[in-house]
Amino acid sequence: MGRKKEVGHEIHVLSNMIGRKIDEEKRQRNMADVSPVQIWVVRYLHEHKGEEICQRDLERDFNVTRSTVTGILQIMEKKGYILRVSVPTDARLKKILLTEKGEKLYYKVRDHIHETETFLVKGMTEEEVEQLLFLLGKIKNNLTT
Predict the structure, then answer these.
(1) Could you say which of 4, 46, 63, 80 is the most buried, measured as most Cβ atoms within 10 Å of its Cβ?
(2) Domain containing residue 112
(3) In the chain, where do the E strands start and end?
(4) What is the Rg, in whole angstroms, of the alpha carbon atoms belonging to the chain?
């Protein structure tokens, strides 16, 4: 008798599988020193260029704690991917900017991100992808209410 599939278990297994796939791709592209979350932060900062992005924006949009974002940003700053610059109107805030090295990383990983997204939805119709995103949104909503 087979075990009944559970949503939480399936999401956990998928997360592990996606992580391994991303790690494999990074090794093939000589990017083993860049974590998946650093890739997502670089992409986020590039896509929000011209906006005043602060740490709290990353905390909110990535749904992670302040200490997690602090650690990520410290590593990225040491690697030279970002700068944290004081906001003139509020000395407590620092906006986060991509450096030239960070921009180069974005262009290096842009195709990798697109290929990963394409691979994940291979064999799905556009409607199925929309339905999947809708259902994942419902799960996220359940977790935040």
Answers:
(1) 46
(2) 7-144
(3) 82-87, 90-98
(4) 18
- Amino acid 90: pLDDT: 82
Q: What is the pLDDT of residue 88?
A: 84
Residue 130 falls within a domain, yes or no? yes
Asked if residue 1 belongs to a domain, the reply is no
Q: Which pLDDT score is estimated for 35? A: 87
> What pTM did the predictor assign?
0.79
Q: What is the pLDDT of residue 33?
A: 84
Query: What is the C-alpha separation between 142 and 107, in angstroms, rounded?
Result: 35
User: Measured on CA atoms in the order 108, 113, 119, 123, is the torsion positive or negative?
Assistant: negative
17 within a domain of the structure (yes/no) = yes
Model pLDDT, residue 2? 65
Residue 66 has pLDDT above 60, yes or no: yes
- pLDDT (0 to 100) of residue 29: 81
Domain count, the chain: 1
**Which residues, in sequence order, are CB contacts of 29 under 8 Å at separation 6+?**
108, 112
Q: Quote the tokens at residue 7.
A: 């949503």
User: Is 2 within a domain?
Assistant: no
- Ramachandran class of 50: left when φ > 0, alpha when ψ lies in -120 to 50, beta otherwise: left
